[in-house]
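Input (structure):
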């Protein structure tokens, strides 16, 4: 690559920049809708301890068997050296994963049905189509389009198909539940830990570029001895399958920043709902019943809202997103300054790797500065979302937010009319018999199923 246009074209078509921008915007809003629905889901059905233990072991055994099946098959095919079978294995494995992501994204875009959140014994969250909301013609359309995009991506028809695939992977992963809890503090610490691990990989990339600039592409010691003939090093899969696997590269390098960006979006909503409680009360959620054959194992469902206003201040989401984008621009400038560069440098994933390395400190520092300026650093540091609360952790109470526990037997109590009155009573040290709801779990209006 010898010109700025060549580098810009490659970055736009093969890196995480454009898919990340679109995926972060879509997934952040959907993750808020998902979180709101999960907060209104009731307790799971009661089962005996013996049945709960059996269900837990069944989940673990099923996961273990699936992982062993995939890895043992891969190891066996590698040992046989049958490239045709190995290619088919990887081809169908990754095609299945991509097909699920594409169908999930297109189902939401085409409004084929409504997702509903349920809880099963053990307080596991499940997302299933809400009964009575499925439009089979739209589902067929979504499946057909997803299959077409999947095939077009595999045969490299156009880079736009692979970009949509990356967006779908980001959207489906970031908009789902991140686990039982989510903490901005833990997420930032994990990103910094990841940054320490990537320093070594970044140093190798810099050495690669330095050797090329000193010795030239033809005489670079990195490239010497690399041939395409029969003496070339053997790979674990064919070039076609390797290209299909590489389609996941933009998702791998943009997933972790996306978790933080989506978390900041929900944090902005929590702050806004704390200052204006009527906003949370304005959200009306529909309930539904699980299918009869699953009624024994699933709670009442809460439908994920299809529309939810995003017209609220988003300082932390904006800071995180622009910090990530600034890192992409900075790396682009570094590559422009190092022109000319061999195409192999970019194809090795070095752009996304260096962009992630810069994005982590940019985002963490940006969020810390924003919180300090707004006087909310403590709130940012202690913010914690409870996606799937465990009743055993509270001795029969339900955790609504960090440090706030309300007895499950309390049906309704008088609450202060404003946040200022609540804090004034608490600061005075007077006993206050009220329900205190954390910003991460505001109250919502839930409508019972009318069917």
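Output (sequence):
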């Amino acid at each position: 690559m010898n010109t700025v246009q060549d580098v810009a074209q490659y970055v736009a078509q093969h890196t995480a920049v454009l898919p990340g921008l679109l995926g972060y915007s879509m997934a952040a809003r959907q993750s808020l809708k998902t979180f709101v629905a999960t907060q209104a889901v009731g307790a799971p059905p009661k089962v005996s301890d013996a049945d709960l233990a059996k269900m837990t072991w069944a989940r673990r055994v099923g996961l273990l068997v699936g992982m062993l099946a995939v890895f043992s098959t891969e190891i066996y095919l590698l040992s046989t050296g049958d490239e045709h079978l190995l290619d088919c294995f990887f081809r169908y494995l990754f095609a299945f994963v991509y097909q699920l992501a594409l169908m999930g994204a297109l189902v939401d875009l085409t409004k084929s049905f409504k997702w509903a959140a349920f809880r099963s014994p053990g307080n596991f969250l499940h997302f299933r189509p809400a009964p009575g909301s499925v439009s089979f013609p739209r589902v067929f359309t979504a499946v057909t389009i997803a299959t077409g995009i999947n095939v077009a991506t595999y045969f490299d028809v156009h880079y736009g198909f692979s970009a949509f695939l990356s967006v779908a992977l980001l959207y489906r992963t970031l908009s789902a539940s991140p686990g039982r809890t989510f903490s901005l503090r833990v997420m930032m610490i994990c990103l910094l830990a990841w940054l320490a691990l990537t320093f070594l990989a970044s140093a190798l990339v810099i050495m690669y570029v330095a050797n090329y600039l000193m010795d030239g592409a033809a005489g670079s010691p990195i490239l010497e001895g690399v041939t395409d003939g029969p003496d070339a090093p053997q790979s674990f899969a064919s070039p076609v399958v390797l290209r299909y696997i590489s389609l996941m590269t933009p998702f791998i390098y943009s997933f972790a920043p996306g978790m933080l960006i989506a978390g900041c979006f929900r944090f902005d909503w929590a702050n806004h709902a704390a200052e204006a409680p009527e906003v949370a009360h304005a959200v009306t959620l529909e309930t539904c019943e699980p299918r009869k054959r699953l009624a024994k194992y699933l709670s009442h469902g809460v439908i994920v809202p299809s529309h939810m206003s995003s017209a609220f201040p988003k300082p932390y989401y904006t800071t995180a997103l622009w910090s990530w984008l600034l890192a992409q621009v900075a790396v682009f400038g570094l590559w422009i300054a190092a022109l000319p560069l061999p195409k192999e440098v970019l194809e090795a994933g070095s752009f996304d790797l260096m962009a992630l390395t810069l994005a982590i400190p940019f985002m963490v520092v940006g969020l810390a500065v924003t919180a300090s300026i707004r006087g909310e650093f403590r709130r940012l540091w202690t913010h914690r979302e409870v996606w799937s609360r465990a009743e055993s952790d509270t001795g029969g109470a339900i955790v609504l937010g960090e440090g706030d526990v309300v007895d499950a037997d309390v049906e309704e109590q008088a609450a202060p009319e404003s946040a200022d009155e609540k804090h004034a009573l608490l600061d005075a040290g007077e006993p206050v018999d009220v329900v205190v709801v954390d910003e991460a779990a505001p109250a919502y209006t839930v409508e019972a199923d009318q069917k």
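Notes: Residues 4-224+235-382 form one domain. The chain has 15 helices and nine strands.
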